[in-house]
Write a structure and sequence with these properties.
- There is one protein chain.
- With 324 residues, the chain is an alpha/beta fold.
- Helix content is 30%, strand content 27%.
- The chain has two domains: 138 residues, Medium-chain alcohol dehydrogenases, catalytic domain (Quinone Oxidoreductase, Chain A, domain 1, Alpha-Beta Complex), CATH 3.90.180.10; 142 residues, NAD(P)-binding Rossmann-like Domain (Rossmann fold, 3-Layer(aba) Sandwich), CATH 3.40.50.720.
- The strands form three sheets. Strands 3, 4, 5, 6, 7, 14 and 15 form a seven-stranded mixed β-sheet that branches. Strands 10-9-8-11-12-13 form a six-stranded parallel β-sheet, with helices on both faces. The chain has a two-stranded antiparallel sheet with strand order 1-2.
- It is globular.
Amino acid sequence: MAKAIVMRVPGGPEVLKVESVEVGDPGLGQVRLRQTAVGVNFHDIYVRTGLYQTLPLPGIPGLEAVGVVEAVGPQVAQVKVGDRVGCLTLTYGGYAEGRLVDADLLFKLPDSIDDRTAAATLLRGLTAQMLVHHTHRIVPGLKVLVHAAAGGVGRLVAQWAHHLGAMVIGTAGSEDKARIAGENGCDHVIQYRSENFVEHVQAITGGRGVDVAYDAVGKDTFMGSMTCLARLGHMVNYGQASGPVEPIAMSLLFQKSNSVTRPNLFHYLADRPRREEMAASLFDALSKGIVTPGAIHDYPFADVGRAQSDMEARKTAGAVILSV
């Protein structure tokens, strides 16, 4: 038996209940994990409220966690008992002390990455790796726009793009967040709530525009980001914090031969060689300090409701994890 956070109906933080669940022995291709830290993401909040109806109820939320392999089932060669691993999956189950998972979902953690850092960074870090190395490969000299550049993914994208030689323009929603963005790779920071980011981008680039715009805000910034693109510029919409983007006319892209992408990280991770390459790239960047998760807000496992409430209230200016 193990403790887990079980959700039986959608609603407020109070619907997340600690219960005892049966774990059992691993089957074919599975391992049993003893988890040490669990990542908390806005995706989890959307699942809890019912905005995302992707978790069969009753169910255990949570996309990412870190732990130690306790037992392995038949035909498991990738990991062994005692290995420290990270797990990232859209089948959920992360909010638990222990669980069974497919061995193919695991990332072996190097000694240079501690459990807290891994739990705080796995989903965000792999997303950033996808964005700067695969969705639009950053090379020296590119001009890049990063929205929400003080956020969990935005700061990593800004750090990595700056390291790779791009000129990074970041947007942030407050003076404090603008300061964070400036400390994390942004050469220029625009406070988009009080400043017209389109005008500022055009001024910074001499009217040329940016080669790529990374936008997780969605509805409120999408069209402005499109205006900011240079000829042959690439619009990467990877989130919709302000709401879904309305359909656009294809002729809009013709004006400057622009392109638009809406990437899904799990599609990139589906190919095993690429998944291993992406994880190795992330762990190397973390080990060398190229990217850093920033503040890690650590909550006791049973305080998951408070952790999510603090995230919703914007009280956490960094990654949120649960210590198991």
